[in-house]
Structure formats: structure tokens, C-alpha cells
Amino acid sequence: MKPIELTINIQFCQYDELGDADQKMIQEAIKATEGSYAKYSHFNVGAAVLLDDGTVVRGANQENAAFPSGLCAERVALFAAQAHYPEMPVKTLAIAAKNEHGLTPKPVSPCGACRQVMIEVEQRYHVPMRILLYGTDGVYVVDAAEKLLPLSFADEDMRQ
């Protein structure tokens, strides 16, 4: 047996250390939390997608009493972007969340299903997606979705 070591580099910074474009994307994600329907969890998540042409598409989590019927903010934003702009690569995805106490101090991280969708979007357009995970205590900056899901299942895995 041979061990395999996976190393992932993620940047952590303060909001004011980010450039104007990244700050704008985080503000769009925060604004997107207002469209959340989180009647059950009271955990409002917003996502903002920056497309290659500068278009911003927002999404928010949508819950349902039949819990598997809801959808995360990341997938809402990415699917809306792909439905309305199917030929436009995604450059950046920003995510923010708030609860009864306000915006979360710790950056919120996407679930596994969202990570898989993010990988597929990268593969679809052959462009890495930059990810900004916002919390009031700081921001994780990830330069590609594949960093969030090492050993991911991909299209080429079905063709080996």
C-alpha cells in the first residue's frame, strides 16, 4: 500500500484586503441572501456568479417541507446562469450566509452536491472557477472548485 498525500492551498484574508471586483461579488452574495426561503433552517445563503462577460447572476437557498425538494444557493445561481447564458463561462462564485444573529462569522462552505456541480461547470467551460467564501471574520479565496473536492467524479471517469 502506498499513501497519497493531497495538498490544497486556500487563501484566507480580510474583506478589505480583496480587490474591488471581489468585494462587489461578496456584496452581491450578501444581497442574494434576501431572496432566500429558509422557513425551516433559518439559515439564509446567497450566491453570486460572475460570468466571463461581467454579468452577475444571483441565487439563494430555497427550502421546502419535503426537505430533499429544496435547493442550495450555489446550485440556484449556477443553474440560472447556465440556463440564461449557456455559452458563458463562470469566472467567480461568491457565497455568504446569515442566521438569526446576522452574517456568519465563519465563511460558509458549499455542500458536497454543490461542489460536484461546481466541478462540472468548470469542466463544461474548461475554465477554473474562482470561489469566495465570505464570513465576517474573513474570506476564503479558492482558485478552482477542484480544490474543494479532491478526487472528484468527472466526465472522463466514465470514459476510461
Q: How would you describe the overall organization of this protein?
A:
With 160 residues, the protein is of the alpha+beta class. The protein contains 3 helices and 7 strands; from the N terminus they run βαββαββαββ. It has helices spanning 20-32, 73-84, 112-125, and strands at 11-13, 44-51, 56-60, 90-99, 102-103, 130-135, 138-142. Strands 1, 2, 3, 4, 5, 6 and 7 form a 7-stranded mixed β-sheet that branches. The protein is globular. It starts with 10 loop residues before the first strand and ends in an 18-residue tail after the last strand.
Q: Which characteristics define this entry?
A:
seven-stranded mixed beta sheet; 160 residues; alpha+beta; 24% helix; 24% strand; 3 helices
Question: Low-confidence runs (pLDDT<50, min 5 residues)?
Answer: none
Order of helices and strands: EHEEHEEHEE
Largest sheet: 7 strands, mixed
The proportion of residues in beta strands is 15-25%
Instruction: Please tell me what the overall shape is.
Output: globular
Radius of gyration over C-alpha positions, nearest whole angstrom: 16 Å
Helical/strand content category: alpha+beta
Question: Kindly state the mean pLDDT as a whole number?
Answer: 95
The portion of residues assigned to helices is 10-25%
Number of strands: 7
